[in-house]
């Protein structure tokens, strides 16, 4: 919102080559465009910017994403009011629209950012592979508790520091080192299986804490893309982090359940190499890919 009845709209749509996804912003009937929209392409994204005038403003009006109901993606909508407060909503094919309100309740912030946190961790395969590698290396449940707690505390610290502007770390090198951390833990599993346990086997919580600091900067990069409501930054940060933890615990529970079921089968001695070498190979590929991306 730039004036009582004037608004600037920025719309980003995923693209593949010159083909853009067929979803469009449908503004309320009381809104009219002032000038023709500006459109351009940035890498894999089509960007559209336009200005509108809405008779009576947007409060109480519904904004829809046309075409979203026939897709399998989500849309993040962010409305910035004239008083610097914001309203953020995650739109889905089942719920492709939202109502502009005069203010956003704490429960809406909590719901939106906790779901964003869960979604981010469950779709963040590099973070999940790191956790999986730690699970394969940790000797017992007590140590597993310490290890996951250390990882949680570490990435919570750097997530908060980066999001609040206390630390500024370039995102591309961080992503490369995150991939390298997965490769490191995979190599530690191989060394342990060969009779040469390293620092990760002896003190997995220390390695989890150290690399967790880097993973927190990775989470912060994603959160910066989503944006934070100016009037509720601590609340949004808290629930995004809780969402990340909830998603992480879901993944750990699924792995532990799978492990209980697989233990009932008699496997050959070499079978452990399959997941470990798969993790290591994928991590090595990511490391090379991410380094060449900014070199």
Topology record:
Blueprint: E1 6-16, E2 19-20, E3 24-26, E4 31-33, E5 38-42, E6 45-54, E7 62-66, E8 75-80, E9 86-91, E10 97-99, H1 106-123, H2 125-137, H3 141-163, H4 171-193, H5 199-202, H6 204-226, H7 233-262, H8 273-294
Antiparallel strand pairs: 1-2, 1-6, 3-7, 4-6, 5-6, 7-10, 8-9
Question: If you had to describe this structure to a student in words, what would you say it looks like?
Answer:
With 295 residues, the protein is α+β, with helices and mostly antiparallel strands. The protein has helices at 106-123, 125-137, 141-163, 171-193, 199-202, 204-226, 233-262, 273-294, and strands at 6-16, 19-20, 24-26, 31-33, 38-42, 45-54, 62-66, 75-80, 86-91, 97-99. The chain contains eight helices and ten strands. The chain starts with 5 loop residues before the first strand and ends with a helix. The model has no long low-confidence stretch (mean pLDDT 86). Helix 1 (106-123) crosses helix 7, helix 4 (171-193) runs antiparallel to helix 6 (204-226) and helix 4 (171-193) packs antiparallel against helix 8.
């Amino acid at each position: 919102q730039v004036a009582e009845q004037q608004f600037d709209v920025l719309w980003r749509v995923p693209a593949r080559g010159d083909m853009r996804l067929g979803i469009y912003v449908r503004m309320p009937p009381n809104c009219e465009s002032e000038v023709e929209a500006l459109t351009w392409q940035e890498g894999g994204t089509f960007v559209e910017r336009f200005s509108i005038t809405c008779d009576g403003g947007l409060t109480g009006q519904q904004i829809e994403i046309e075409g979203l109901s026939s897709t399998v993606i989500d849309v993040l909508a962010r409305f910035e009011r004239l008083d610097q407060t914001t309203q953020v909503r995650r739109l889905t094919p089942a719920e492709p629209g939202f109502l502009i309100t005069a203010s956003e309740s704490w429960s809406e912030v909590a719901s939106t950012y906790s779901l964003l946190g869960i979604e981010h961790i469950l779709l963040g395969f590099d973070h999940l592979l790191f956790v999986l590698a730690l699970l394969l290396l940790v000797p017992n449940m007590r140590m597993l508790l310490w290890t996951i707690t250390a990882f949680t505390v570490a990435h919570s610290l750097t997530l908060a520091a980066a999001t609040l502007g206390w630390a500024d770390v370039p995102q591309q090198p961080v992503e490369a080192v995150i991939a390298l951390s997965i490769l490191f833990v995979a190599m530690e599993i191989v060394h342990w299986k060969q009779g040469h346990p390293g620092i990760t086997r002896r003190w997995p919580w220390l390695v989890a804490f150290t690399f967790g600091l880097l993973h927190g900067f990775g989470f912060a990069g994603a959160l910066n893309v989503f944006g934070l409501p100016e009037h509720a930054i601590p609340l949004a940060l808290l629930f995004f982090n809780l969402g990340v933890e909830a998603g992480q615990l879901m993944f750990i529970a699924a792995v532990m359940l799978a492990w209980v079921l697989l233990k009932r089968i008699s496997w050959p001695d070499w079978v452990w190499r399959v997941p470990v070498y798969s993790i290591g190979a994928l991590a090595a590929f990511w490391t090379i890919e991410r380094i060449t991306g900014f070199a």
